[in-house]
Design brief:
Distance between the termini of chain A: 133 Å
Structural class of chain B: mainly alpha
Mean pLDDT of chain B: 92
Shape of chain A: flat
Shape of chain B: rod-shaped
Strand content of chain A: under 5%
Number of helices of chain A: 11
Number of strands of chain A: 3
Structural class of chain A: mainly alpha
Radius of gyration of chain A: 44 Å
Largest sheet of chain B: none
Mean pLDDT of chain A: 67
Low-confidence stretches of chain A: 11-20, 162-195, 221-239
Low-confidence stretches of chain B: none
Oligomer: heterodimer
Largest interface: A-B, 60 and 57 residues
Number of helices of chain B: 5
Order of helices and strands of chain A: HEEHHHHHEHHHHH
Amino acid sequence: MGDQFRSKVDQYSPKSSPRGSRSPIVPRQDSTGTLKTTISLGKNPSIVHSGPFYLMKEPPGESELTGAKNLMVYYGLEHTYSKFCGKRVKESLSAFLPHLPGYIDTPGNQDNSSLRSVIEKPPIAGKEILPLSNMQLNGFRLHPGPLPEQYRYENQMPQKKHKTKKKKNKYRSSEITTQEISSDLTSLDSHEKKHKKQKRHDEDKERKKRKKEKKKKKQKHSPEHINMGSLTPNQHSNG
Amino acid sequence: MSSALENLETQLDSFIENVRQIKIIVGDFQPQGQQVLNQKIQAMVHGLQELDKLKSQVQDVVVPLEVFDYIDQGRNPQIYTKDCIEKALTKNEQVKGKIDSYRKFKSHLLAELSSSFPNEIAKYRAVRGDERPLP
């Protein structure tokens, strides 16, 4: 008898149940297991659904930081925001690296200088970098004379404003020993001086013009001017 | 970390400057310039050695791959930062809008349900532990 009972119980034992610890004897309407139930044992065992609402779940725990907060303020990035988004950032790469020589705004894939290619096809590394021996340096023995035209002007710095040129000169003034470089420098400097001179000359011209106009106005309002009623030759030539 | 980056930047600057000077020497080569050129070439090798030494100091610098695309297109990498900030702000505003809408929806729903099913909603709120009066 006892064995019979055990075999019956074993049949429904949670161990053998595919649903784990749930009793397969009791039919369950709620497959999700979210309904609260009260099981009363005794003479008349019964199962009463005590949960008030069907499919009611525990609400998710509230997290402290959500998108409802201004995350820019939360992480103290207002300054960064105003720095990058407040004023207009110049589009070109040369604006970010103004002192870099050469024309750097061309797409990298055009002259095979893209950073992507370094990642996609990494160069052979791991070899020790050693100074070149005299024999190896012989390989760099050059013929005198200028480079052919097409190579000489390739990658040359584009004409820019004075400001960037000044910055470039910071490097130019440093330890350049060869005659060639110094001549290059002097030509550049003289060009710059010329440019400056011209600018100064233009400014002087402007100033003089303004002065004359002022004088003219003054004379217009002065009683002398009314009496004279004529222009000086100088004014005439400018007017 | 910032000093390591500054070192790297200085080293790169001097390397680029050295290459620029080589370019000038080579551009119109004079026989007496050979020795200087050799020195510059050795300086370039030395520069590479220095750069190689510095790589261990910047191992933990993480650079987003997308920024390379900006640089490769000849664009200012600060534009990338700007775009990221703007995107983050837009997303933040969108999520805030969603959260606010859901909050409003919940309070409206509760108000409407409590007028239609007052007992059930009272029970529900008791279960939830929400005793606040409805707006």
